[in-house]
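WARN no homologs supplied; continuing
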Amino acid sequence: MKAGISRIEITPALHMTMSGFRERDHGAESFHDPLYATCVVLEDEAENKCAWLTCDMIHFDRQLRERVLDKLADKTTLGANNILMQATHTHSGPLACTIEATDYLDREYTFTAQDEAYYHFLVDALTQVILQAESRLVPSKVGFASGSLTSLGNNRNEPEKYMDNSVNVLKIEDLEGECRGLMVNYACHPTVLTFSSYRISADFPGAMRKQLSAVFPNAIIAFSQGACGNISTRFTRRENTVRELDRLAYGLSGEVLKLLAEMRTQDAIHIRTMVKTVQLPIRDFPTDEEIYQEIADIKAEMARLKETNGDPALIRKAYVSLQGPERNLMIKKNIGDIKEVSAELQVIDTGLFRLVTLPGEAFSEIARDIKHQSTTVVCGYANDYLGYILSREGYENAGYEK
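OK structure emitted
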């Protein structure tokens, strides 16, 4: 088998509008760590190939994917069904990556010429990083292992409820056994830095990359987001600082190193891919009167928590919960007569591990129901963005996402 890996920096300019939090009222003020697009290309003995691209962006919509595929069309032997594109979901990156995305919320921002320029740069960069990884295919060995981590994230609505705490690691090494690359998959919102931060950052995945790069200086380290729709650091973080990024990332880096200590690599894989389109129904919305009552109830609870010096995490939960009914009002107004949306699901099976994509912010229980084997890796925010994709439990429990 052969493997190739490449990385390109996609850090935006200062002062560009940031994504992730509607509360921000101006552009980026500083840089904490670079944003990257990283691609791994694998080839089996029959010359079947697959590409796994992960990018430090808020999400990866279908329109952006199509732009990149169009650029790749006459430059690669990789077929569209064999290329997985996903975002890490950092909330400290540029909004400009969403220029062509479908948005049923009331957009409060008009994109600028600088945003347009960044978007064109991004399409070119993502195209280039895939081609570079393919051009660097060399005989290699790969290993895969899965562990668990409970110290970084948990269920952000009901901390005692289920979360997918699996840590999945793909290692690429040369024939002499030196590590050339790591892809680390874990499900958790990268929101240690919140709306009060105006630093460009990959959040905890960036801290993890830096920590592991100190151990493997000649390797490219990448992060793959899982099904983290209801998973975050809301109840695990002690503060919203860059120092806290490092502390929380130590747990993830440590689990990766533990898995690598026991991992065995192999020089053969067998690549198979499948893509299926399914129709997802649009949910039934409450009446406007019910939504306005919910808004009033949440505001009353927020006031009570503040008056009684409540837990900051619970105050934040109430504040975020307010966004749920407010978002529902916007979506009801903007979605029109649409009754269902198309969702493309992709499976890439290498024999050693299997990648399954979900096109948006899927709840953790959905990943649980997909993972019949520990070698199955769920990739969220992949190939398209349909917003929150709730599990049955998600509709039954508290949360602004429903």
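The chain is about 30% helix and 25% strand.
OK
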